[in-house]
């Protein structure tokens, strides 16, 4: 086949594909989505499905693969996760309509949606308890801005964001896809991909701020955006790019975006990507949710509440009034157990209204989404009653939007069955009694089956053929079927005047009658008419719900707020957590603090209680720094992390795992705990460590909380010691912040006597008969040794290595005491040669007891003989 003789269908495919060259094209053919050429090769590898061929093009076989339409969502998810974009081309007309234009006419097709990582809406493609953000970063002159939306919920936010702040803000949001101008793609590609997001470049026109303002006003049908706030040119450009991209990917069916909320740049605690990773705030180092802080504290009952909780932990507030209001709400529910339990029980029956509403707005919803709105609003009214009578505060504010939905609730209850089907095309979701015409049509459709059964009985009586059946298939419709033996009677007079022959098969003969044809037409028309009536009602119900979308969204937000407060309260009661005191001071005092994740893990393992510790960085002096020493495995890193997490939880509005806590507002949280190679960038472990340390020293202000663990360990001893020493001095003199600084360099403990804001603390251990017992207690003072050799023995190093290490250590310590460590290393080179040979085995003569034991047959001894034998051997040993 030459290019000129390409089939009409393939010509249509190539025309559509040319418009979406960077996406895999799902080309609808009946019950399958087909893929061709390079798309087929890529998809077959990604999805592990068979690759076949269909005809030729330019002399080459056309590669082809396909997936069933009913299973398409699972394949879409697999492709999206592997970095592909998918364009979905649907049949836009009935094949019968295409045939009217000619026998060779092709069914009209067009792309109805471009599926990308940031534009997913289906439940099967999303995590119910996590946001799926699409971000856009714009720069206008020297001004930068970041806008983001989750189209599955309709949330839209924007904030000023200079380029240096882009990385930490994207780390906070963890978006799936980021839009940038084509002029900035090369510069931002590495940064965005390092954070695990897909990058999509748009033309400069998409980021034009003037055009963006018009686009946004048209979206919300307003003359000006002033009612929503004052936005800079870069903020308008970022939001405009989002809307432009959604118009492209959703093919004109824009999601139900709420008016934008503007976030202040300094409104939340600043946490960079390295700190989020080190502290495992929303994801563990392994990549999953299990083992993270979010996993340990999440007791929310709703999907909306879980997403709000993740936002709170990712961006703890710096507004004292906001923090206090959230803590007050948790405090009230801690004190009122009955209200807390009733509220949580009611919340468990709240469906995900945000995502149901979004699917309805995008015309991807079904009857179950309408039922979700009905159920959610009904529960909201019950929860509003629970909240009545409370003193004004965050809980009553959240409950304000839960009332006033009686009309739409009543409409949905009257119109929908209790458990509707997933898809409108399945029918059967409109309740009986709602529409008289629909009820009558359904009766005709359903009673037609009884009419068919009566006709069959009549024909059996008329013919005397007991095996006669009336059946149905999609080709013949209703027909009468009998065996070939009995068919002769029906073909003969007088029965042949009633029964009309239609088809003969190997063993059966099929007939019809005039009455049967007439009733078939009525039954088929009734079924189709009933479905059309239901679809019409679905459109009306959808429109009614979308007309109330704003108020429904407010109710969903209120329910999420109540859910987070109730979850925090339940956690505080169950885990014995305390309300923190958060103020504008520089205090940091934690009494009997615990690590929430480690404590939970110990409880699950049955490994005993977590050892709580105090941390007092509260001092008249500013800064206040603890220099923490102690052996590996003693718990230094756990102590550092738990105090950082306590500060984070306090400003997120939660109670904290401690007996008491006084937290002066923390503006920035920095953590450098552990490190690994970054081979993709050519960075060694030490380079990663230094990059992260540099970021802290260059950014931390006097309200920051910094935790540093083992700075300088990735290089030579003296290099590492000097870097750690200088880092601590810089934190004290220049950054003047609160810090916990763990180190194995005991020489640094001398700084406590030189820097007024530095105090020594140590994690205690105890030696018992050569064993090291980790007490996990933190107390003031400095460790006298590291116990590294003992820890190595616990790790399973061979005894010969441990013994040799002890010899080397004693030599080094002796040189240190004499001030000649370097000289001792050089002069005593034999110290470092291969390990000495094992001592020869000494052969000894067996003792009398050993000789006697060899002659004994234990199975032949009576209990009395065994006891007597023990006394004899004991006597022999005494001699």
From TrEMBL:
Source taxon at top rank: Bacteria
Swiss-Prot/TrEMBL keywords: ATP-binding, DNA damage, DNA repair, DNA-binding, Nucleotide-binding
Stored CDD domains: ABC_MutS1 (cd03284)
GO biological process, one term: mismatch repair
Binding site for ATP: 630-637
GO cellular component, one term: cytosol
GO MF annotations in UniProt: ATP binding; ATP-dependent DNA damage sensor activity; damaged DNA binding; mismatched DNA binding
PROSITE patterns: DNA_MISMATCH_REPAIR_2
Protein biosynthesis recorded as keyword: no
Purpose of the protein: This protein is involved in the repair of mismatches in DNA. It is possible that it carries out the mismatch recognition step. This protein has a weak ATPase activity.
Name of protein: DNA mismatch repair protein MutS
């Amino acid at each position: 086949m030459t290019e000129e003789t390409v089939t009409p269908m393939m010509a249509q495919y190539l025309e559509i594909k040319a418009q979406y060259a960077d996406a895999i094209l799902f080309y609808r053919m009946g019950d399958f989505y087909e893929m061709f050429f390079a798309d087929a090769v890529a998809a077959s590898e990604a999805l592990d499905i068979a690759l076949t061929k269909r005809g030729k093009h330019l002399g080459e076989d056309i590669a082809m693969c396909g997936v069933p339409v009913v299973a398409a969502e699972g394949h879409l998810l697999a492709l999206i996760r592997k970095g592909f974009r998918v364009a979905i081309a649907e049949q836009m007309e009935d094949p019968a309509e295409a045939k009217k234009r000619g026998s060779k006419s092709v069914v009209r097709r067009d792309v109805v949606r471009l599926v990308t990582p940031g534009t997913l809406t289906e439940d099967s493609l999303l995590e119910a308890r996590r946001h799926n953000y699409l971000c856009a970063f714009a720069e206008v002159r020297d001004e930068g801005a970041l806008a983001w939306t989750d189209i599955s919920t309709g949330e839209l936010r924007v904030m000023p964001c200079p380029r240096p702040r882009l990385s930490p803000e994207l780390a906070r949001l963890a978006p799936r896809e980021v839009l940038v101008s084509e002029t900035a793609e090369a510069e931002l590609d590495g940064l965005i991909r390092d954070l695990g997001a897909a990058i999509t470049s748009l033309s400069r026109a998409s980021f034009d701020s003037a055009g963006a303002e018009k686009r946004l006003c048209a979206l919300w049908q307003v003359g000006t955006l002033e009612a929503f706030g004052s936005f800079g040119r870069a903020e308008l450009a970022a939001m405009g790019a989002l809307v432009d991209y959604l118009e492209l990917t959703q093919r004109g069916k824009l999601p139900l975006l709420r008016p934008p909320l503007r976030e202040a740049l300094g409104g939340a605690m600043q946490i960079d990507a390295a700190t989020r990773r080190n502290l495992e705030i929303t994801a563990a180092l392994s990549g999953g949710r299990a083992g993270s802080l979010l996993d340990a504290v999440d007791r929310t009952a709703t999907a909306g509440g879980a997403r709000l909780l993740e936002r709170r932990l990712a961006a703890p507030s710096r507004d004292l009034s906001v923090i206090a209001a959230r803590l007050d709400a948790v405090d009230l529910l801690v004190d009122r157990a009955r209200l807390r339990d009733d509220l949580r029980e009611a919340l468990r029956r709240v469906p995900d209204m945000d995502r149901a509403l979004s699917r309805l707005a995008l015309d991807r919803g079904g009857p179950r989404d309408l039922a979700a709105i009905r159920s959610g609003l009904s529960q909201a009214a019950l929860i509003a009653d629970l909240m009545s009578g409370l003193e004004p505060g965050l809980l009553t504010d959240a409950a304000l939007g839960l009332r006033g939905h009686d009309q739409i609730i009543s409409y949905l209850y009257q119109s929908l069955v209790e458990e509707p089907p997933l898809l409108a095309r399945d029918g059967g979701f409109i309740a009986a009694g709602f529409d008289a015409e629909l009820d009558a049509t359904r009766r005709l459709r359903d009673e037609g089956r009884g009419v068919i059964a009566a006709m069959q009985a009549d024909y059996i009586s008329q013919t005397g053929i007991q095996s006669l059946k009336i059946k149905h298939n999609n080709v013949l419709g209703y027909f009468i079927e009998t065996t070939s033996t009995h068919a002769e009677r029906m073909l003969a007079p007088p029965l042949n005047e009633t029964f009309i022959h239609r088809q003969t098969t190997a063993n059966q003969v099929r007939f019809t009658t005039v009455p049967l044809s007439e009733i078939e037409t009525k039954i088929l028309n009734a079924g189709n008419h009933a479905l059309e009536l239901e679809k019409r009602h679905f459109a009306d119900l959808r429109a009614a719900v979308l007309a109330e979308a704003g108020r429904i969204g407010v109710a969903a937000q209120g329910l999420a707020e109540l859910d987070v407060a109730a979850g925090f309260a339940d956690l505080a009661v169950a885990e014995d957590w305390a309300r923190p005191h958060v103020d504008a001071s520089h205090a940091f005092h934690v009494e009997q603090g615990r690590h929430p994740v480690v404590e939970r893990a110990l409880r699950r393992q049955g490994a005993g209680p977590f050892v709580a510790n105090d941390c007092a960085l509260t001092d008249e002096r500013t800064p206040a720094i603890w220099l923490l020493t102690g052996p590996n495995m003693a718990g230094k890193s756990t102590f550092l992390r738990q105090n950082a997490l306590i500060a984070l939880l306090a400003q997120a509005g939660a109670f904290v795992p401690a007996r008491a806590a006084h937290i002066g507002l923390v503006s920035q949280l920095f953590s450098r705990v552990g490190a690994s190679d970054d081979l993709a960038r050519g960075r060694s472990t030490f380079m990663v460590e230094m990059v992260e340390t540099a970021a802290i020293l260059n950014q931390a202000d006097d309200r920051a909380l910094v935790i540093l663990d083992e700075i300088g360990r990735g290089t030579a001893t003296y290099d590492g010691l000097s870097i750690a020493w200088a880092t601590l001095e810089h934190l004290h003199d220049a950054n003047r912040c609160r810090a916990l600084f763990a180190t194995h360099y005991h020489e640094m403990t001398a700084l406590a006597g030189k820097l007024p804001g530095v105090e020594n603390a140590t994690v205690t251990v105890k030696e018992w008969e050569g064993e090291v017992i980790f007490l996990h207690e933190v107390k003031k003072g400095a460790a006298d040794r590291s116990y590294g050799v003992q820890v190595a023995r616990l790790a399973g190093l061979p005894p010969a290595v441990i013994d040799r290490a002890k010899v080397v250590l004693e030599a080094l310590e002796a040189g240190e005491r004499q001030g000649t460590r370097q000289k001792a290393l050089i002069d005593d080179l034999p110290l470092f040669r291969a390990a000495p040979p094992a001592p020869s085995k000494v052969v000894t003569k067996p003792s009398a007891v050993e000789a006697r034991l060899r002659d004994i047959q234990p199975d032949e001894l009576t209990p009395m003989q065994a006891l007597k034998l023990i006394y004899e051997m004991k006597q022999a040993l005494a001699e």
